[in-house]
Amino acid sequence: MNGIEIVQLTKEYKDIRALDGVNLTIQPGKIYGLLGRNGAGKSTLLHMIANRIFPTSGEIRMDGESVFENDRVQGRIYCISEMNCYDADDKVYKIWNWVQNCYPGFSMEYANQLAGKFGLNIKKKPRQLSTGYNTIFKIVTALATDADYILLDEPILGLDANHRELFYKELLANYAERPKTIIISTHIIEEIADLLEQVVIIKEGQVLLDLPIEEVRKMGYSVTGKKSEVEQYCSGRTLLGEEELGGMKTAYIQGEPGEIPAGLEAAALDLQKLFIRLTNS
Amino acid sequence: MKFKQSFLYQTKKMLYASLITSGVYVLLALLMLLLSHILDPKVQFNGVIIGYLVFMLVSGIVAFVNNPRAHVANGISRRTCYLAFLAMIPTVSLAIVAEMAVLRLLFMDVSTELDWVLEFLMQSYQTGYLGALFLLFLLLLTINLAGFLIAGAFYRLNVIGRILLAAVGGFILMVLLPLFVVVCPDAAAALGRFLAEFVASYGSLSVLLLLISCLCGACGYLLVRRSPIRSVKW
Amino acid sequence: MTINFESDKPIYIQIAEEIENGVLSGAFAEETQVPSTTEISVSYKINPATVLKGMNILVEEKVLYKKRGVGMFVASGAAEQIRQKRKENFFDHFILDLIDEAEKLKLNKTELMQLIEQGYQSGRRS
């Protein structure tokens, strides 16, 4: 497995540039978090890898071949998103028959097992399911294909807390059973942070960063204390953001903390806080 | 290549739908038979052939959006999907013609339409029963591809384009054409005779239908090959 | 085993420390197998690579060892080894921090000693 190479990928619509010269290599066998604000271009990117839409310019390659209109390569990729793709009159188990035809690695047994765990009624049509169960149907399908590259665009839309936890566990169990490349694109950052091995942040159609998660966690920290003392500490340091409450101030600073002067408290920035600081324009 | 899987998937779905349509006609025919025994004069129903033609037209129309989407979702290219689609259409058309022949045998008493159309075709074109069925076969497949092309044109065009296409098409058919006939009756008559040449003989009609199908098929592919998959509720 | 997701400490370090705690307390006896990466990963919803990183630290320190095809086992003498390491770190991590905190609260050395005495006498320690 060589991963997916994305080269100078650009997608222009009439009035906006959804992706602007994106260069990225998806390394195989890792769980990726694809993060970005609304409209940043995450879905566009995933949909292109999955051959759903075409770029204005640029390439996406796997094993040296373009992914577009390529049966062989696409047979190793499975993507889910808010889009409902299958025949509206087919029941879940019928759709699974069709998916099994196309993905030899699909396990009906495992799909049924997962359906049982989630409480998914496979005799219903997806359009008869609630938003949450429609998402569950998609997640179960994706996990059951056992594809080499599983792209999940907002996989926890409408899921209650119990189902979310079950999903994370089943995802990890599936990954542990046979490591594959999983790309999760979501807004609910903190919950999935510990599932991730690599983080990619997209901002305004470009890659802001592409790093292993520990590196991302080291990228910033916060310092809290008396306003004047915090401001003094901040001089000469790159500021990511700040908050004030009364006479207290919290500053978000780029880099790793060295010696923290007495009177100030330093804390690590969790992924979500860091993400917010980095993507606020 | 996932051609086989795609072909079987599309063919099964279409055959199932066509059998449902035939099933409805069988039920109607039975109903008519029953009514004929009770009422007088005999009850007839027509529109079977039109029914199948409409079925093929609508299938072609919805196929443009639904087929690629259900295929791309499973990692199958639009190209493979379309090739299988092209193989499926004559297969299903053949099946429908067979269904028509069976219906005709079963319900000669309650529907003269099948009889009538087939007789008309056989006489006008001096061909046998099978020859007439073949013309119907060509008609079914042409209309399916035409539906696909029309749907494709609307899907790929933006809102203004769609309005223009619909308006221009409507305008030509409902305004320009009648105007032309009224204003230049001689030219219209000449044009009419010229066009009639194309459908005058069995051979020329067959060739015309095949040409139209090929054209629709080729243009259909041009429209579908880079078509973006969208969440369109068709 | 508890992992504090809010804590500043990297998850993989917490995993290593929690396994060490298990070894110290005897929950993971020497020469027995510890839970697999998969089990810990699924239980705590943590990426297996992160879990493996934590466990590998312990392998490097010879607290754990790998048996091919079976899993990770606790090495003999691991408990004692961990105790030694922690004693060495005790001064830095606890004593110095304690003195810092006491100074913040304006407690002098005598007062701090008194508090320590009190701590031993109280029944709070479990």
Description:
- Chain A is an alpha/beta fold.
- Chain A has ten helices and 14 strands.
- Chain A is globular.
- Chain B has about 230 residues and is an all-alpha fold.
- Chain B is built from eight helices and no strands.
- In chain B, helix 2 packs across helix 5 and helix 5 packs parallel to helix 8 (about 200-225).
- Chain C folds into two domains: about 10-75, Arc Repressor Mutant, subunit A, CATH 1.10.10; about 80-120.
- Chain C is built from five helices and two strands.
- In chain C, a hairpin with a 3-residue loop joins strand 1 (about 65) and strand 2.
- At the A-C interface, helix 6 and helix 8 of A face helix 2 and helix 3 of C.
Low-confidence stretches of chain B: none
Gyration radius of chain C, in Å:
18 Å
The named CATH superfamily of the largest domain in chain C: Winged helix-like DNA-binding domain superfamily/Winged helix DNA-binding domain
Q: Give the percentage of residues in beta strands of chain B.
A: under 5%
What percent of residues of chain C are in strands? 5-15%
State the CATH class of the largest domain in chain C. Answer: Mainly Alpha
The strands making up the biggest β-sheet of chain C line up spatially as 1-2
Question: Main β-sheet of chain B, in a few words?
Answer: none
Number of helices of chain C: 5
Unreliably modeled segments of chain C: none
Oligomer description:
heterotrimer
Structure at a glance:
The complex is a heterotrimer of chains A (281), B (234) and C (126). With 234 residues, chain B is mainly alpha-helical.
